[in-house]
Each structure stands twice: as C-alpha cells, then as structure tokens.
Cro/Cl family transcriptional regulator
Amino acid sequence: MAERKIFAGPRVRRVRSGMGLTQTAMAEALGISPSYLNLIERNQRPLTVQLLLKLASVYKIDLDMLQGEGGGTTGQLREVFSDPLLAGEIPGDQEIIEVSEAAPNAAMAMVKLYRAYREQAARLTDLADMLAREGHETSVAGARLPIDEVREHLERRANFFPRIEDAAEDFAQRTVGTEDLQGALKAWMKAQHGIAVRTLPVHAMPNLRRRYDRHSMRLFLSERLSPFDRARELAMEVALLALGPEIAAELDALSLSGPEARRIARFELARYAAHALMMPYGAFLTAAQRVRYDVDVLRSRFDVSFEQAANRLTTLARPGAAGIPWFLLELDHAGNAIRRAGAHGFPRAAFGGFCPKLGIHSAFAQPGQILAEAVEMLDGSSFLTVSRTIEGPQAAFGERLRRTAVLLGCELPHGIETVYAPAAGDQSSKVLGGTACRLCERRGCLARAEPPLTRPLGLDEMVTGLSAFDFQ
C-alpha cells in the first residue's frame, strides 16, 4: 500500500516553537537531520506516517492537529473572500488553506475584522434607510454586484415602461388578436424569422429553461416548465425579436454602469415585455377593474399563472389610465428577497429581513391558499396584503421542489376597492406589523428577532418583557 504523505510544515513549526525547541533539538529527537526538518517546515518534504507517529510518541501531541486543514478557520476565510469586495483576490482554496495553516491566529483575526465590517455596514445601511424615510439624504455606499445595481435602479422607480407597453399593445393587436396566444406567437416566429419551437424532455435539457439554437433556427423549451412559464419564455423570445428597439431605449434610460448590469437589466425588461404581450395593458386594466382585482379570475381569463397576474398588477401606472398602485414582494423559505416591484409605499429595510408577522411567511404553511389581511405599521400607515405560494419548475422524484411566496399589497384605502375588501375592513384581525426588527420599536412583540438599533437594550434583572429582546 502506498504510504500517505502529509504536508503540514507550518503546524510542525508551531509545535516546535510552542515548546521552545530549536530545529536541531527537534531533529535529533525525531532521528532526522536538521536540514530535512527545515524542508518539512517549509512544505518541501512530506510528513510521513512514521514521522507522525514519532512526533506523537516523543512530544505527546494529538495527531489530529497535524492532519486537519486549519480547523474551521478555512471555511470562515472562504466566507470572507467570497465577499464582492474581495472577489477575484484569491483564485482558489489552496492559498486560503495555506494562510489558515501558516498563521491561524492572524487568519482568525481577519475573520473577526471582516465580521465587524459587515456588522457596521449593516448598521449603516439600516440607519441610512431610516434617515432617508425622515427626509435626510444619505450617501452610504458599499461594494455592489451588478445584480444589486439593477435591482436598486428598478425598485426606486415606478414599474412602468411606456415604450415597451405601447409597442407590446400594438404588436398584440396586430398579431395575436383573439387567437390562442402561444399558437399566434409560434406562427409569427416561424413566418417572420423561420424559428420553430419545440419542447424538450428533461434528459435532453436537464439544466436549462430555454435555449435558442441559431444554427438550426429552433427555440427549445424545457418540459419541466408549466404551460404558463413556457408561454412566458416564448413571449420573452418574441419580445427580444419584435420589441428590440423599445427594450434598448428603456435600457439606456436606466443609465447602468457596466455591461453585466446591462445584460441583467435587458433580461428583466424582456420579462416585463413578455407580460405586456401576454396581458396587453388596456385589456388587462379593464378586466382588473371589472373583477375588482381578483387575481384568480385574472389568471384564468388571460391563461397565466398567479405570479404572472400579480406581477402585471404592479405595472398598471400609465398616466391617465392607471390602476391601483400595487407593490409585490417575493421571498423564498429562508426569507431571501427574490423580487420587489411596484409602488413605494410599503416600508422595508435594506438589511435584516422583513417583519415575521407578514402573511407571506405564513403562506408556506398553507401552500396554494390565498391569505388576505390588513397590516398596520408602527407609524399608523395601513396596507392590504394578499399572500400565496407559487411553485417553481417541476421537480424530479427525490428532488426538492422550489417553492416561493409572493405578497401583493396596496395601501388600505385602495384595498376597499378590491375583492379582498372584507379582509381590509376587518379591524379585529388586523396585523400589527413593522419594518425589519432592527428598525421597529413596537414593544411586547412576540415575533421580535433582533433588538432595534434606535434603542438601548433593557438589562433589568428584576423585570423581563414578553419580547426576546427588551429595550428602553
């Protein structure tokens, strides 16, 4: 059997230094030459099994400390160097392992410094958000990924792109009319661009939703997608072909900083255009007003999913022909914000999650059910929220299903105009919510996860409140 070789020079050097030994003294005790020990400590020679056993017997040390990879420090350093601020500084794990082994105390100090930096950045972000709501302009900025830049641009403006809306409505009237949407779009692609559409089985396209093959002039869609999602992918491809100038004009108006951000934004605008093709503005607004914004009726009438109809409601902001100003939030099980869109009335924090009392969190316990409720914030503002889970692509046997939840909401006075008015008017079941726990000063909240930044902690040993974190 081949002898296992371990390169652990820095750890051998730490053992020797900790015992106050010279290289000559340790080499003599191990039965090797000082020059060979020097090579071992510089990782130019391996620590063989025989040497490991000799070290253990002579110096009574635990072999595990010579065979690990820097303990837990390596994983914590990986977290540090995955930050966008340090992305690309270290090409692989080997250098991280070497740092954690050669200088574990310095590595742990680096981890502590990074965590302190992240904590301060989070606090600054929260305070900037709070000051902005009070009318004070702030310029707190940090390292941002292109996708963060795109989200910030889209979230701080109305979710309405007039060039795309006008072009999509005109295209739908000329091309689709009252025909089957998917059939009309497929026929247009074939007639105008010679592109055929085909649905592929999972084994042929296991990791993709959609793929356009320029050589064979075919658009492939995954069978994992629901019929509604397939329709959207098809509509996105048509939008990129038919509404290219309008999408480009709206993209230029966003004034993004780099090519990657522009590519991400172009995808988001194509998604927006797809919804505009599937649910033309005028027809959708008229239907929404007639059915009092009942999302289930709208999804059935336009043959779309709940998520698609809810997203479309947030875009009804055409001057002179606007609907209720809805906002939308989509979260996953872990509370990660996947999408925000629509009106800007609902308070939110840039860091620290969302109020755990919101119905969007409860929706995961009741998949497919609509939860409508009124929410009153600490400042007295009130909202109607409608929450429901949505399913991702079809999962294979043994594969975990992707499930997210959406919260569709509007200011409470607008909620009276909707089919969800009973929930909006039921004062007895109104949820007393807030922003993220770090910014919320509501006392006695059983759902509180963190103390507020704006108040000192209450450390009275004689009195304990209902909340997990008491504050003064």
The longest helix spans residues 104-133. Residues 47 and 94 are 18 Å apart (CA to CA). The domain at 144-278 is CATH 1.10.10.2910 (Arc Repressor Mutant, subunit A).
